[in-house]
Amino acid sequence: MCGIVAYIGTRQAKPILIKGLQRLEYRGYDSAGIALINKGHLSVYKTVGKVSKLEEILDVSNTEGTIGIGHTRWATHGEPNDVNAHPHYSQSRNMVIVHNGIIENYASLKKQLMSEGHVFESDTDTEVLAHLIDSIRESENVSLDEAVRLALAEVHGAYAIVVMAKDEPRMLVAARKGSPLVVGLGDQEFFFASDASPIIEYTKSVVYLNDGEIAIIANNELSIKTIENVVKSAKVQELELQLEMIEKGGYDTFMMKEIFEQPRSIFDSMRGRIDPKNGTIFMGGMSEYQYKLMNAKRILIIACGTSWHAGLVAEYLFEDLARIPVEVDYASEFRYRNPIVHHDDIVIAISQSGETADTLAAIELAKQKGATVLGVCNVVGSSIPRATHAGAYTHAGPEIGVASTKAFTAQVTVLIQMALWVGHRKGAISEGELRKILIEMETIPAKVEAALKLNEQIQSLAEEFKDAQDFLFLGRGVNFPVALEGALKLKEISYIHAEGYPAAEMKHGPIALIDDKMPVVVIATQNNQYDKVVSNIQEVRARKGRVIAIVNPGDTEVSKLAEFVIEVPETHDALSPLINSVPLQLLSYHIATLRGCNVDQPRNLAKSVTVE
Ligand code: G6P
Which phi and psi (to 5°) does residue 375 adopt? Predict the structure, then answer.
């Protein structure tokens, strides 16, 4: 949700900013811009469209300068156009700002500033903040960082900002509240970015800013203070991110690379945690809370998007394996419905990015109400792991494709382990059952690898269905959320309307949609509901629906009924989402690609949603 990058040092800033914006483009890509200071001139270059379009403009401009700020936008206030693109000037045009987030009281601030004679060019909340900072700077006659601090004290909302002024060519001021910002510390140079990806080839030393902190680079030094003017010391951390983790590595798209990385990301999410030989699980990050989990009367799961689907899978797992009642909520609904939360409830927040605004707000609410909050996150050092009491990382590695794939299966991997861990400690599952599942878990990476071999078969299937207008995805039990996720993936990247449904619920509505053009993807792998799914397929066939079935080897019944059959390796039912998700990801991918869609950056979406 908007990407920010900034540089101050001895190198030319432009190439660093552009490369950084390209890496951050997953956060938003409707417009992009940079500002540079060179020999007393402050210049802004910005355009609607992607960073590649910005590069075209820059090619014909004089873009020297060793200090600069950049932005790639996902529009909130004001349509995506050149004027609304960041950076934004202040009234005097002596100062510029880039911003990620929303200034909620921008309308009243704007009115006040307009009454003082300010004229605004754009429809954005960001421009209001630029004017506010600069007008405080002039009227109070204070330094740039102090003006930023005083302005932020008047602002409600979420932000990460970086500010630079023409008369302070060796100074950058940044701040965060609710939106991520990391500072990179190099040799005589400093970086700001929304995540560490623009920084890694220059330095591994970073400082993750906390909410309410202002970072100032001046005289070649970093200093940090809060909005309340309390001086803070910088906690320098070493980045573990490697450059190859954020490159396409020979694949056409990040999404394809990430789908194919799943054997590894699932393995990494189990590594050091399961020990099938001894039949044990170790969840180090949350061992302090094991008794609370074991004694929890209820688990509340909060998440958004694909992570919410992982939460739904976890509902089945925790209830079945650990015998703890579970409620799964969209974080955005949870936070506004005055939820009932008890002291002995455990809240599990699931998030790939660790920055989703609704999930963060729901966590704060749950904490206020006295619950213990555990996080399941992918991005190390992001806000959610810091806001939760404890948790487990998913170790999927950076996920850059906007549509989530490997992060989902990694989340499910971690949640399975959590459910088994608690279930075993509570005595809800026997030693024997635990060992059986753990032994099977170890085989999952190889089985996912085998499922990936279906790629070509699924590509031909995609040819057959690429022009469909609607799609239905059906599954039961733990594979119902997989059906939801399959439908979400298809609509996100191919723009085909798709719905996921519990297979048995189809007859209560969606069956009305079925005719001889309707593709119906049915997850019909082996479990105790197999016969029921066969009956559901019969219902679709009776209405001439076109059934694409996901089955296990040796299947007889479904194969007779379905028009197309995709055969994936068999596994324990609790683990089956890890394998069954793969053909659905590939199907969406190929349909979207055949329709000419940009799978990594689908229209209107952003990977990290840091606004409500
Ligand atoms: C956005 C992304 C989705 C993601 C959701 C939740 O909508 O496009 O892919 O599932 O946010 O994100 P999180 O980072 O909290 O898992």
Answer: -110, 145
